[in-house]
Amino acid sequence: MEQICVIGVGYVGLVTGACFADLGNRVIALDVNEKRIEGLKQGVMPIYEPGLKELVERNVRAGRLFFTTSYAEALKGTGYVFIAVGTPSGVNGEADMQYVAAAARSIAENMTAPLIIVNKSTVPVGTGDWVADIVRSAQPRPLPFSVVSCPEFLREGTAIADFMNPHRTVLGSLDRQAAEKVAQLHLPLNAPILITDLRTAEMIKYASNAFLATKISFINEIADICEALGADVREVAKGMGYDKRIGPAMLEAGLGWGGSCFPKDVKALAYMAEEKGVPPSILKTVMATNYERRRMAVRKVDAMLGGLNGKVIGLLGLAFKPNTDDMREAPSIDIAHGLIAGGARLRAYDPVAMENARALLPAVDMFDDPYVMAKGCDALIVVTEWNEFKQLDLKKLKRQMRTPVLFDGRNVYDPVEMRKLGFVYQGVGRGYEAKE
Ligand code: NAD
Ligand code: UGA
After folding, report:
1. Cα–Cα distances in Å, from 57 out to 10, 26, 34, 51?
2. Is the pTM of this model over 0.85?
3. CATH says 289-435 is which class?
4. Using a 6 Å CB cutoff, which residues line ligand 2?
5. Domain spanning 3-196, CATH architecture
6. Where does CATH 3.40.50.720 sit in the chain?
């Protein structure tokens, strides 16, 4: 059993803290957001993540997981401190490092014994050395410490399972012994462990996210070609995915990628490349293709309705993906703005993201029930593929609508069934529809 401090109780920090506690460690989770820490002490989760509340409560009850806003309290007796604060996009696409810098300074000011500082945030290549400089210069008296990069690969919505069953653990450090100690903490996860240098570990994270984003943008381009040529992208992706060199994951065509990570990380990697004079031509195309998906959705609905002006359009789903309340860079935001700019009035239903969406989309009327939301709609758009949308009573949904037009941006429904039900239906990349 080790004592671990985790800084930041967001998607990564809270999941990391709760999972390390569940593995038997004593974990102190710290955040500067007092409301978040007060809430956690009362059992209120700051984010929606399936299974997280139960995991947190179990470990709090077992006396393995604690919450605080005090760095002095959090670092007392702690051998490892994990930094898991946000690294959002700055004005030019670079990663905004102010939260990492603040965390590093607070660690330096409050540490009272040797410490291994583990960076879990996604940070520009070179950050490990930079954090070491900050800590060194902010320490009131010199105490030994090491910096280890340990990028996180979990996904929102399946964060606990991803943390507990990673495909790999990547560790980077100039101090091999420190990296090996951090490796020990990860042994119960039974994943391959790659120990490398700091910069390489930091780069592995960006390269991985950029590759996955590229894979999605690639299948989206294939979807457009399928649509034009009369092929079905879902079957094409299935056929491609059987090839082990390709694999079936991240081949779902639709409205493209959003969220708090792919957009900012691809942008930050392109920024780093350009700063060094390396033209990131693939990354730029991948980004442009992705944002075009959102405009494509607006154009498709416009064409299906014969104009947007005065039309009432309902959005099924707002979150950037299912099983999360995260609205950061959600395609729904740009799609809603595009439809509103065309003169449409918007309604929406999302199982958990509406609270976060209200401030971002004040002109969109939100409803607690998808059938009530669909009432009087000229068209519906599936923006997020929540499981509950697969179970909707489609006949009932259609009866509510003024005209039964449905653009399925995530290919949730079967085109043939939808037509049988009397919907004017279009999916993404399902060109064989044209041949029927
Ligand atoms: P988040 O915004 O959900 O949470 C960050 C937390 O850090 C907030 O609660 C904030 O109050 C706290 N914080 C900010 N400054 C602080 C400070 N000085 N001291 C203590 N707490 C502070 O962020 P997130 O989504 O968990 O992402 C964190 C990092 O992990 C990012 O670099 C992100 O790119 C990376 N990442 C995220 C995911 C994901 O799925 N969200 C997956 C892998 C990696
Ligand atoms: C992604 C990565 O998958 C994680 O490995 C990584 O740790 C994380 O970013 C991060 O660095 O924060 P996440 O953003 O939570 O995780 O979600 P994904 O499931 O990867 O989906 C990202 C976006 O791509 C979503 O908007 C989703 O709708 C879209 N997507 C995903 C597709 O359009 N098609 C697919 O086949 C898969």
Report:
1. 16, 14, 19, 10
2. yes
3. alpha beta
4. 122, 152-156, 209, 212, 216, 250-252, 254, 256-259, 261-262, 320-321
5. 3-Layer(aba) Sandwich (3.40)
6. 3-196, 289-435
